[in-house]
Specification:
alpha+beta; TATA-Binding Protein; ten-stranded antiparallel beta sheet; TBP_dom_sf
């Protein structure tokens, strides 16, 4: 990989507790940091501080985990949630976990001429009057990197750090 620094800022994972149904009122009233307002949102919003993670818990047994900065921290937070659900009397097994999105910030250590890039390359979108950056899409992976004039970027849609690194390499290869 080229000399580009990146940092994962957020990971979103789906967590499936197969054959489970959750009583959301019970969860909301039993877990500190959990809120349930069905008129606003159909699930329980649960925030943990150690490890830091947020969960969206649905009656169907499906859960979204977000707000962690590494897979290891997410897995630890999910293990903790699973144990808490068991203590509340829910019959849950180890869930199926899948990364849906990783968001990373990056520094390319150089400035970009976004208009030149937009004129010369496919798979880019640049509308400066709408958005101050350029959207560079990596087709095969459903990954996009938002590039900014000052040389910074944001990667969205990746499902692994390898995909983030591949996207960075592709951007560098195309614009150099």
């Amino acid at each position: 990989m080229v000399d580009v620094e990146y940092k994962v800022n957020n990971i979103v994972l789906t967590v499936s507790y197969k054959d489970s149904k959750f009583n959301l009122e019970k969860i909301a009233s039993s877990l500190e940091g959990a809120r349930h307002d069905p008129e606003v949102f159909p699930g329980v919003v649960y925030r943990k501080t150690e490890p830091k993670a947020s969960f969206l818990i649905f009656e169907s047994g499906e859960v979204n985990c977000l707000g962690t900065k590494s897979i290891e921290v997410a897995e630890k937070a999910i293990e903790g949630l699973t144990e808490r659900l068991k203590r509340l009397g829910f019959e849950v097994e180890k869930p199926e976990v899948k990364v849906q999105n990783m968001v990373a910030s990056m520094d390319f250590h150089r400035r970009f001429d976004l208009e030149r890039i937009a004129r010369n390359f496919r798979n880019v979108e640049c509308e400066p009057e709408v958005f101050p950056g350029l959207v560079f899409r990596i087709k095969r992976k459903n990954v996009a990197i938002l590039l900014f004039v000052e040389g910074e970027g944001t990667c969205v849609g990746a499902r692994s750090e390898e995909e983030i690194e591949e996207a960075i390499d592709r951007v560098v290869e195309v614009i150099e």
